[in-house]
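Fold this sequence, please.
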Amino acid sequence: MKYGLTAIFAGIFLSGCASTFLKVENPDVLRPDKEFERAVVIEVPEAEPGTEEALIATAPPAAEEKPAAPAKTVKGAKKTVPAKAAAEKTPAKASKKAVAPARREPDLEDDKGFQGRRPLKDPFWIGETVVHDVSYFKVSAGSLTMRVDPFAQVNGKKAYNLVTHIKTYDTFSKLVYGVDDKVVALLDFEQLIPRVFTMTVKESNQAREVRSFFDFEKNEANFWEKKITKKNGVEEKKMKWEILPYSQNVFSAAFYMRLFAWEDGKEYAFRVADDGENLVFKGKTLRREVLNTDLGPIKAVVVKPEIILKGNFKPIGDILIWLSDDDRKHILRIESKIKIGTLVSEIVELKPGKAP
């Protein structure tokens, strides 16, 4: 998975070049694609003083609806009640046969703990912040922060505002490689499908802006990328491909997996669309254990993920994920074996956020 978190950190440790961030003389060359701006209207809450700026400018207000003209009355006629109001006053007749609720779509996803597409217990609380320390050979290299910011609107629809931020510590940035990458994934509140993700990359050998929009009305993914590298200068990439309904992107997937129960011996799966391919994420609980962290001992579920492409297993390395064994399923630890050594990302700070 080209833009997965593990791939980003693997690039940090395998680069071996000492420098700080790449200097961009003309930031305008990385401006978001106009095609993206025409396709997507995003409204996000204004950033509070001292915090990071809002992702994209606030959308214009919706046009005000004109009130319906009053109905004409005829003297001596009986007073009429609008059909909508009559329906509200008159209870509908009970159906003779109880209709069983439809199974949650798509079929490959487990539906325990859901009512339709919505979870019975929402694990995403506004203000939630989970911070990891990322280490290689037990040397701290950087931080991974996962946040749930206030709701956004994407083309007029309410969306979770899910932020992932990866940043190397100053010493590591100067001596080895510098990374300051931020991803914002906007996940539809009702359908739990990703509408947009944006990525801003500031690293030692590249600067990059990425925009991706999943158009589920057309089942089509749209991807735009602009980047500057020391080797090749300015490059631009555009992609469009057909996706399957209810597909996640690689960044929403890290949050989406938290919606499931992760019971022992049960396999969980959902679709992921990335880099022109349609994949299936699969995972199974290996064990339950108590994880000793800087925050103290925390009960955890250990999950091993796999990726399936066109019915075949696609290697993504030896990765384990620890989730909190509760209704929130916070990501507590990520362990990924790479060519040399193992990357470990483990929780050091947790702000639970405000319960919905």
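The longest strand covers residues 277-293. Confidence is low (pLDDT under 50) at residues 5-19, 49-92.
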